[in-house]
Design a protein that fits this description.
eight-stranded parallel beta sheet; TIM Barrel; globular; alpha/beta
């Protein structure tokens, strides 16, 4: 068991790593050099509140086979591994303007999910920092999230939500990119079908010029446009979200075939943020069940381009945070301490250039 949030090398960091700092002295400082964050950095105004399914036969067959394999990496007393979670969401439906996501009828997600709740979910683990992904398409919510990040030392980066190809993109990107914690933009849905349009391509070039990452959401249909994009902009770091896709659970050769081309693009990273499944009302916790898909991802992208992500709080649909974490930890610890360290934080720094602050400041290059 770890020593709580922010514990590194046997030293326990305060849980305040995920607790908002005092709000005094919120004046904006001049933009500092990228990768540093002035102690008095704040936005100008505080917010009012911080915002091919498996068949039963396939599942039972694979679960039975998995039961015969050792669950490596779960040995009692294993040294804790500091981690940066590269995919979580913060939002607050109780603020006056509400939120566009999640929907009010979502009983699991429609409630405030803020740093104190994440701290509780990750208690006892070595989650020393997080990259927060903005799911809201409202432009002002990028500023809202930056305000929350400035007051929360454990937030080491923000992936914003902007629409390329619109007149608002370029000025918004210039303003947001001036803040060191703003580390990229996520695209999905219809935007993936418009990547070839000149206005969209120009905005993606601006993203690359700003040394920011591009997160892509969209499942299997996103892979072909993502590969074209990665080849057209070799200087743009592209991060595929939420692999391995459930459609491949019963067909690992299909996974390898679908990813073979894009895996050859050295600027493409993969978030291993959709691992634990819930099938027939059961959460599949045995790491061996996921080993075929993880082996394929490791073979294709190597030890240097896979990132740890939980997709909290959405991940709660399938399992508690600790189960998500321990399932992938078992696999990567079995690869050795160097591979585990790369997966849990070094690779994400290469992808996002996140800011070393809070407990994550103790992670040495």
């Amino acid at each position: 068991m770890g020593h709580g949030l922010g514990a590194i090398n046997g030293r326990r960091a305060p849980i305040a790593n995920f607790v908002s700092a005092p709000r005094e002295n919120r004046g904006l400082a001049a933009p500092p050099a990228r990768g540093t964050l002035p102690a008095n950095f704040r936005l100008s105004a505080p917010p009012r509140s911080f915002p091919a399914p498996l068949t039963r036969r396939t599942f039972l067959g694979r679960a039975a086979a998995a039961a015969l394999l050792p669950a490596a990496g779960r040995a009692a007393g294993a040294a804790p591994q500091p981690a940066i979670d590269t995919h979580i969401h913060f939002y607050d439906p109780t603020r006056p303007q509400g939120v566009p996501w999640p929907r009010p009828d979502d009983r699991l997600l429609y409630s405030p999910h803020l740093p104190d709740r994440f701290a509780a979910a990750t208690a006892g683990l070595e989650i020393v920092g997080a990259v927060v992904v903005e799911a809201s398409p409202w432009p002002a919510d990028n500023e809202w999230l930056l305000e929350l990040a400035a007051a929360t030392p454990a937030i080491v980066g923000i992936v914003g939500n902007l629409a390329p190809g619109t007149p608002e993109f370029a000025p918004a990107l210039r303003r947001l990119a001036a803040q060191p914690l703003f580390r990229g933009v996520r695209l999905g849905g219809a935007a993936l079908r418009e990547l070839a349009q000149p206005a969209v391509a120009a905005d993606l070039g601006r993203l690359a010029d700003a040394d920011l990452a591009l997160d892509l959401l969209g499942g299997v249909p996103a892979l072909a446009p993502a590969e074209r994009l990665a080849r057209a902009w070799p200087g743009l770091r592209v991060v595929l979200n939420h692999l391995p896709f459930p459609a491949w659970d019963a067909d690992i050769p299909a996974l390898r075939t679908a990813l073979a081309g894009i895996a050859r693009c050295p600027n493409v990273f993969v978030k291993v943020s959709d691992v634990v499944r819930r099938i027939d009302g059961r959460t599949v916790e045995d790491p061996a069940y996921y080993r075929p898909a993880l082996n394929a991802l490791f073979d294709l992208f190597g030890p240097g381009r896979l990132l740890y992500g939980s997709n909290w709080p959405v991940s709660g649909r399938n399992a508690p945070y600790r189960v998500i974490h321990d399932t992938v930890a078992a696999y990567f610890r079995a690869k050795g301490p160097v591979a585990a360290e790369r997966f849990f934080w070094r690779n994400s720094h290469a992808a996002y250039r996140w800011v070393r602050r809070g407990a994550a400041a103790a992670l040495t290059p």
